[in-house]
Design a protein that fits this description.
EC 4.1.1.48, binds the ligand O=C(O)c1ccccc1NCC(=O)[C@H](O)[C@H](O)COP(=O)(O)O, lyase, amino-acid biosynthesis, alpha/beta, single chain, TIM Barrel, indole-3-glycerol-phosphate synthase activity, two-stranded antiparallel ribbon
């Protein structure tokens, strides 16, 4: 019998799964490129987050996760997205990974088409084909996780996404990754409070890294944000936005939770 995977193996397993998925996309390269080129203009993800007097909320559509197990398995992405929009969210983040998060590109399409908010495809991007696939499915932004990309690939994927008209959320967890994000020209940096080896979250990760970013960079604090006190703390630190999944999705009334999180004032870092 196979031994259960350690938490520290999860990211490596996810990356291996993505490589298999990319191999299947290779036969569809021309079709994806054509559909990406024909996609309607992307909504302004950067503008939804930048230079607002209050902290903006990116609300997530996530059915389950490796760290938390089942979160809201039967969720209706379109209904949830409408609730988020009515409650003051500035953008959507939709997990599209199937094997580990129970998501899909259909979730992305359904959520985005129910609202006028920009939508991030939250997945583990390793290849240009996934970016074309995201654009073809209507995504407005993609995620690049610095930890799983070398410098050349990070720069290439960032450039490709921008060329395709997508915003890019470049995710970091420590100072070395932050330097690499800056070097690749990131305009939006996500500081992940979750250590992807242990799944522990700590908002001090954001507080410790944020002031190292150049003025004008949009800063998103990601993961482990549980309520109004956390929002005020991150607003004092000066983040532009937060990305919140589990605490909204486990709330009996997700709309009320988004409303509770929305709009604490933020310190101006400039
Ligand atoms: O959430 C996990 O367990 C996880 C494990 C491995 C890689 C990524 C993971 N999460 C993806 C995310 O980035 C979160 O969904 C997002 O930051 C929201 O976090 P939270 O508010 O804590 O649900």
């Amino acid at each position: 019998m196979q031994a259960p995977s350690k938490r520290s193996d999860i990211l490596a397993r996810i990356v291996a799964t993505k490589r298999d998925e990319i191999a299947l996309l290779e036969g569809r390269a021309l079709e994806l490129r054509a559909r990406a080129a024909d996609a309607p203009p992307a909504r302004d993800f950067h503008g939804a987050l930048a230079a607002h007097p209050t902290v903006r909320v990116i609300a997530e559509v996530k059915r389950r996760s490796p760290g938390a197990g089942e979160i809201r398995p039967g969720l209706d992405p379109a209904r949830l997205a409408s609730t988020y929009e009515r409650s003051g969210a500035a953008a959507l983040s939709v997990l599209t990974d199937r094997d580990y998060f129970g998501g899909s590109l259909d979730d992305l399409r359904a959520a985005r088409s129910a609202v006028s908010l920009p939508a991030l495809r939250k997945d583990f991007t390793l290849d240009r084909l996934q970016i074309d696939e995201a654009r073809a499915a209507g995504a407005d932004a993609v995620l690049l996780i610095v930890r799983i990309l070398d410098d050349a690939r990070l720069a290439d994927l960032h450039g490709h996404a921008v060329e395709r008209g997508l915003a890019v959320l470049v995710e970091v967890h420590d100072a070395a990754e932050l330097e690499r994000a800056v070097d690749c020209g990131a305009r939006i940096v996500g500081i992940n409070n979750r250590d992807l080896s242990t799944f522990r979250t700590d908002l001090a990760v954001t507080e410790g890294l944020l002031d190292r970013l150049p003025a004008g960079t949009v800063v998103v604090s990601e993961s482990g944000i549980r309520g109004g006190d956390d929002m005020e703390r991150l607003g004092r630190a000066g983040v532009d936005a937060v990305l919140v999944g589990e605490s909204i999705l486990r709330a009996p009334d997700p709309g009320a939770m988004v409303a509770e999180l929305a709009a604490p004032p933020r310190r101006n870092r400039a």
